[in-house]
Design goal:
single chain; about 700 residues; mainly beta; Methylamine Dehydrogenase, Chain H; Lipocalin; five-stranded mixed β-sheet; four-stranded antiparallel β-sheet; 45 strands; WD40_repeat_dom_sf; exocytosis
C-alpha cells in the first residue's frame, strides 16, 4: 500500500458519518466506528480479479437495562496486537473488551473507571478525572500494557495481566491524543490548546514529571521536530483542510498536500525538488534535503506599492522573521523567504524550476524573485487609484461590505415606502411589517440568484479589486518579434488586464553571476474587464507548451518553435485566442450569458485513448460557478461535452476543486473528505487493485 493508484473502497449501508478507522495488525482487516455508535469489521477479499473491502460483521455496544447512552458511547478504539481483541473506550470512562471477529463482549475483562481510581493517589482522586476515554495506545515493546488517556488530562499505564495501574500522569490541559516513542521509554500527550507534553516512563512507580512542554509551532517557540525520536508534528489548529494537486510532476510523484493558511503550490521535480509555499503574506521557497540541517533562512522584501503617494495600508502588520540559524528535520527545508509589502494575502504563484524563478501576486500587484541568486528581479503595482478597498485589510473589508449591504437595504426600503406614499397607499403597522419582511426575503433571494441570471456587461475600471492578481504564467515564446523567442512572464488581473514581461535569463555558465532582467513588453485590456483566470501559450502545432524540465526528463515532446504561437486568455466570461507576437484577436468563445455561467477553474488536460496508446489530445477542463465541468477543444475552442459535477450551492466544493493533467479531479465534500472524479475513459477512478 502507499503506491500511486492503489486504493480500496467500502461503502456502509448506513448513511452515517465515519468517526474512526483502525487497522487490525497483519490481518488485511480494519474496523470502522460510525456516529451511530456501531462498529463494522471489513476484510480485503478478492473478487473478479481485484481485491475489494467487504463488510464481515457489524456490532453495537449495549449497556445494562436503564443505563444512560454515555455508558456505552464509544470514543476510542484500540485493536490489540494479538489480533484477537478490541479495546473500546467510552464516554463513561469504562473500557470494554470484545473478541474478534465475533464481537463478543468479555465482561470479566472490562477496565472500569473505579478500578483505575483505586490505583491513583488520593490527591488526584476525582470521579470526573476518569470521564470520557480520549485515547488508547498499546505499549510498543510490551503488549501487556496499554496507555489510557482521559479527556481531563489524566493518563495511566494499565497492566493487562495484573489488572492494575503501574504509572499515572496528570496533564494540566484537556487531552486530544497520545503517541509512543518507538522504544517505549517516552510518550507524547497532545492537548486541546495545541500544546504537546513529553513524558518519561520510568521502571519504578514514582510520579513522573513532564520532560518538556511545547506550545504550537508557529507561536515562534520550540519546534516539535526538536523532540528526539519523534516525527515532526504540526498542530491541527494551524492547518486549513484544502487540496492542491501538483501541476509539475515527474514519474509517479502524485501527492495531495494540506494547505497552510491560504495557498500551497507544490512542484515535485526530480532535478531540483523545489517547493513554493505562500502562507498568508509571505512566500517560502523550500528545497529537498534528506538530512537534518541548521541554517539561516535568507529573506527579501517586495514593496508592491513602490512608495507611491496616496496609498496607505490599513491592515495588519507584517510577520517578524526569526533571526539566526534554524534547525530543520530532513525533508523540505525553507532556504529563502519573500515578505510582501503591504502584507496582504498571496493570491497567485508560479514556479519555473529550470529558470529558478518564482512569481507571486497579491491584491496590489505582482513580483518576480530569483531563488538561485536570492534576489528580487522586479515588482509591478496593479492597484487602481480609486481602489482604496484593497488597502483596508480583510477585517476592514468585511465591515465595509456589511455597511454597504445595510445601506443598500435601507435605500431600497425607503424607495419602496416613498413610492407607496406617492400612490396614496396606506396600511396598518402589521401590514407594513409583513411587507418589510417579504421585501427582505425577496431581496436576499435576488442576491442569491444574481450570479445565475446576470448578463455579461462591461465593468468599470473603478470597480474594487481590479488589481487583484488572479493568475501567473511562464512561457518561452515569441513576444517581441516572430524571429526570436525568449522567456516571458504573464500576469492576469481581476480587472481584465494581462501584463507580459520579456525576461533575460543568463545561460547556465553565467547564471550565478549575471542578474535576471525583465522588461514589460505587452499590456492587454479585455473589453468587458472580466477577471482573467487562466493564460496559456500554444506552440506551432497548437499544443500547449510543456511544463519546465518535462522535455529534459523525456516526459514531453519539444515544443514547435518554427510555426507561429498563439495566446489563449481565459476570463470568467469568455475564451479568447490571440496571435503572437502581434497580439491580434483570432477567435473567441463566450459562455452562455443567460445562464450567467462563469469560469472558476481551468486547466489543460491530456486525454488518451482507452483503445490505443497512439492517440491523445489536449483539451481544456473548465469548472464553472454552476458546478458543471466543460471540455473545450484546443485550439478551435469547440465545446465537446458538459458534465454536472458539483452542486452549484456547494461554494466551498467549487472553490477547492483541482484538476490533474490527465483529466482527473478532486474537491472537498466536507472539511475532512474529498471526492475524486475522472473525465477520461482511460483513467478511471474505480480501484482495480489486488492484495495477496
Amino acid at each position: 500500500y502507499g503506491a500511486p493508484g492503489v486504493e480500496f473502497m467500502g461503502l456502509h449501508e448506513e448513511n452515517n458519518t465515519v468517526m474512526q478507522i483502525r487497522f487490525i495488525p497483519d490481518q488485511c482487516q480494519l474496523v470502522t466506528l460510525l456516529d451511530d455508535n456501531s462498529l463494522h469489521l471489513w476484510s480485503l477479499k478478492q473478487h473478479s480479479g481485484a481485491s475489494e473491502l467487504r463488510e464481515e460483521h457489524r456490532f453495537t455496544l449495549k449497556g445494562p437495562p436503564g443505563s444512560p447512552p454515555s455508558a456505552t458511547q464509544i470514543t476510542a478504539v484500540l485493536p490489540h496486537s494479538s489480533r484477537e481483541l478490541l479495546y473500546l473506550g467510552t464516554e463513561s470512562g469504562n473500557i470494554f473488551v470484545v473478541e474478534l471477529p465475533s464481537f463478543r463482549v468479555l465482561e470479566d475483562r472490562t477496565i472500569t473507571s473505579e478500578a483505575v481510581l483505586q490505583r491513583v493517589p488520593e490527591d488526584y482522586c476525582n470521579r470526573r478525572l476518569c470521564e470520557l476515554v480520549e485515547a488508547l495506545q498499546e505499549h510498543p515493546k510490551n503488549a501487556d500494557q496499554i496507555l489510557i488517556g482521559y479527556s481531563r488530562g489524566l493518563i495511566v499505564l494499565w497492566d493487562l495481566q495484573n489488572n492494575k495501574v503501574t504509572h499515572h500522569f496528570l496533564g494540566s490541559q484537556q487531552l486530544e491524543n497520545l503517541y509512543w516513542q518507538r522504544d517505549g521509554s517516552k510518550f507524547i500527550s497532545c492537548h486541546y490548546d495545541g500544546s504537546y507534553t513529553q513524558w518519561p516512563v520510568s521502571s519504578d512507580n514514582r510520579q513522573p514529571e513532564p520532560l518538556e512542554n511545547l506550545v504550537p509551532y508557529g507561536q515562534l517557540a520550540s519546534s516539535p521536530s526538536s523532540i528526539p525520536g519523534f516525527s515532526p508534528l504540526l498542530s491541527h489548529h494551524l492547518l486549513t483542510p484544502c487540496l492542491q494537486h501538483p501541476t509539475e510532476t515527474v514519474g509517479e510523484d502524485y501527492q495531495c498536500w494540506e494547505q497552510a493558511e491560504h495557498s500551497l503550490l507544490k512542484y515535485g521535480m526530480a532535478a531540483l525538488n523545489v517547493h513554493v509555499l505562500a502562507c498568508s503574506l509571505q512566500v517560502l521557497v523550500m528545497e529537498l534535503n534528506d538530512e537534518d540541517a541548521e541554517h539561516v533562512v535568507d529573506h527579501a522584501e517586495a514593496d508592491l506599492l513602490q512608495d507611491q503617494e496616496g496609498y496607505r495600508w490599513k491592515g495588519h502588520e507584517k510577520l517578524k522573521t526569526r533571526e539566526g540559524p534554524v534547525r530543520f528535520e530532513a525533508g523540505f527545508q525553507p532556504f529563502v523567504l519573500v515578505q510582501c509589502q503591504p502584507p496582504a494575502v498571496v493570491t497567485s504563484l508560479a514556479l519555473h524550476s529550470e529558470w529558478k524563478l518564482v512569481a507571486f501576486g497579491t491584491s496590489h500587484g505582482f513580483g518576480l524573485f530569483d531563488h538561485q541568486q536570492k534576489r528580487l528581479v522586479f515588482v509591478k503595482c496593479t492597484l487602481h487609484p480609486s481602489d482604496q478597498l484593497a488597502l483596508e485589510g480583510p477585517l476592514s473589508r468585511v465591515k465595509s461590505l456589511k455597511k454597504s449591504l445595510r445601506q443598500s437595504f435601507r435605500r431600497i426600503r425607503r424607495s419602496r415606502v416613498s413610492s407607496r406614499k406617492r400612490r396614496g397607499g396606506s396600511g396598518n403597522a402589521s401590514e407594513v411589517q409583513e411587507a418589510n419582511a417579504k421585501f427582505d426575503q425577496d431581496a436576499l433571494q435576488e442576491m442569491e440568484l444574481a450570479p445565475v441570471q446576470r448578463k455579461i456587461e462591461a465593468r468599470s475600471a473603478e470597480d474594487s479589486f481590479t488589481g487583484f492578481v488572479r493568475t501567473l504564467y511562464f512561457a518561452d515564446t515569441f513576444l517581441r518579434d516572430s524571429s526570436r523567442h525568449c522567456p516571458s512572464l504573464w500576469a492576469g488581473t481581476n480587472g481584465g488586464t494581462v501584463y507580459a514581461f520579456c525576461l533575460r535569463v543568463p545561460p547556465a555558465e553565467r547564471r550565478v553571476d549575471e542578474p535576471v532582467r525583465a522588461e514589460q513588453a505587452k499590456e492587454i485590456q479585455l473589453m468587458h474587464r472580466a477577471p482573467v483566470v487562466g493564460i496559456l501559450v500554444l506552440d506551432g502545432r497548437s499544443t500547449p507548451l510543456p511544463e519546465p524540465l518535462e522535455v529534459a526528463h523525456d516526459l514531453s515532446k519539444s515544443p514547435d518553435m518554427q510555426g507561429s504561437h498563439q495566446l489563449l486568455v481565459v476570463s470568467e466570461e469568455q475564451f479568447k485566442v490571440f496571435t503572437l507576437p502581434k497580439v491580434s484577436s483570432k477567435l473567441k468563445l463566450k459562455l452562455t450569458a443567460l445562464e450567467g455561467c462563469r469560469v472558476r477553474k481551468v486547466m489543460v488536460a491530456n486525454f488518451g485513448s482507452c483503445k490505443t496508446d497512439d492517440y491523445s489530445e489536449n483539451d481544456l477542463a473548465v469548472l464553472t460557478n454552476l458546478g458543471d465541468i466543460q471540455i473545450i477543444s484546443l485550439p478551435f475552442l469547440k465545446l465537446q461535452i458538459r458534465y454536472p459535477c458539483i452542486r452549484k450551492e456547494d461554494v466551498s466544493g467549487i472553490a477547492s476543486c483541482v484538476f490533474t493533467k490527465y483529466g482527473q479531479g478532486f474537491y472537498l465534500i466536507s472539511p475532512s473528505e474529498f471526492e475524486r472524479f475522472s473525465l477520461s475513459t482511460k483513467w478511471l477512478v474505480e480501484p482495480r487493485c489486488v492484495v495477496d
